[in-house]
Write a structure and sequence with these properties.
Distance between the termini: 57 Å
Strand order of the largest sheet: 2-1-3-4-5
CATH class of the largest domain: Alpha Beta
Number of domains: 4
CATH architecture of the largest domain: 3-Layer(aba) Sandwich
Largest sheet: 5 strands, parallel
CATH topology of the largest domain: Rossmann fold
Length: 454
Amino acid sequence: MSQNRILVVDIDPVIRSGICSFLGAHGHIVSEAANCHDAREQFQRFRPDAAVLDFSLPNGDAPQLLRHMKAVDPGLPVLVLASQGSLPVGAGAIQSGAEQFLVKPVELSTLHSLLLRMLSARQRSPALPATAAKTKRERVNPFVGSSAAILRLRETASRVLSSESPILLQGETGAGKGVLANWIHRNGPRSEEPFLDLNCAGLSRELLESELFGHQKGAFTSAVSAKQGLLEVANRGTVFLDEIGDIDLQVQPKLLKVLEDRVFRRLGEVRDRTVDIRLISATHRELLELVRQQRFRSDLYFRVNIVYIQVPPLRERAEDIPPLARQLLCNLTQDCGRNEMTIADSALLTLQRYSWPGNVRELRNVLERAVLMAEDKVLTTQHLHFQGSSIHEPLRLNAITGGTLKQMERAYINHVLRDEAGSIERAARRLGIPRSSLYNKMKRFEIPHGTGRL
């Protein structure tokens, strides 16, 4: 009889009891939890060999719990349970690090077979250290290519690896800021400790505070139990705050106190807790402009901006697209269970001609769709489908060379706005002019607001 230690986390007591009884009857040592707080404590004490995780836990805490478990034990096999009709949730769990997912109601024999298969796979490589397993899972290299922009990025990032100072990554959405933050952590002095991330965009003040600092039972209406925050879980490790420019003004001084004094308080608590983290933050917005608008504190801006790294957009390093596409294709074929595939030179040329408003993330999506749809082993131009307009509606400057300078300027501004899906901020940055100047030109050329929005 196997003596594997398995943690079962499910909000439904009937389902949880059934799974635990079945696994216990098959010789496993089982621990259970009904919520994320209890699961974290059980995970810390129990140190399971595998976990079964209900992805419909209250407060949307399951993804964070999964990231926490994988940060502490990257090789931990995790089987996610998804509710009926939530296949995208299960697929998202796989992308977040889970090995398998099943849709409820589950066949207990199937669940057991999957667990045994995952445990067997882990036991076949017992000598693999945690750091090596983590590196293996994080297969995306943020420095693929040989362009001047990517070489500068590598040199800058390498210089700050051993530093403990906060790092601010500035770059467009999808440019690879999260991948770079992960690389800095993995290669820095805190690589043995947790790396936890939080996207601050769209989070209410209450939810953001709870996610960052945790809360005590009864701190607010839905706080039915105490909960550790991201800072507490990541102690001695690295916290990556994406879209830091969206942090609520009332939360900003509390984050500043963490950076300056290394102390914080859970919501509803009166005593200070000490924490030791390295902060890496990222934004696609101009934080200094938010400071001028009094939407971001100047003291916090100068504290998070000690080390500044600009992540270049993909369109500014088109020569890197072929090697980057080949690496992504290699990873995607493995993830999708396909045999080795290649990409035709004509398809690579098409990829280089596209402006990539969604950057590396969009490139990966285009290739993943092509891998799933292609029947042959070679991806061609016919397999590539783009969401933007610059492939299907290319800028035809040659067609207006007989026009006036005003006509050409208006046509180019329209083209850039279409490529940037109507974003004034990104279009102005690409055109190399202030946003106010772009607004004035749009008014002068009678270009309506919202041009190019998808």
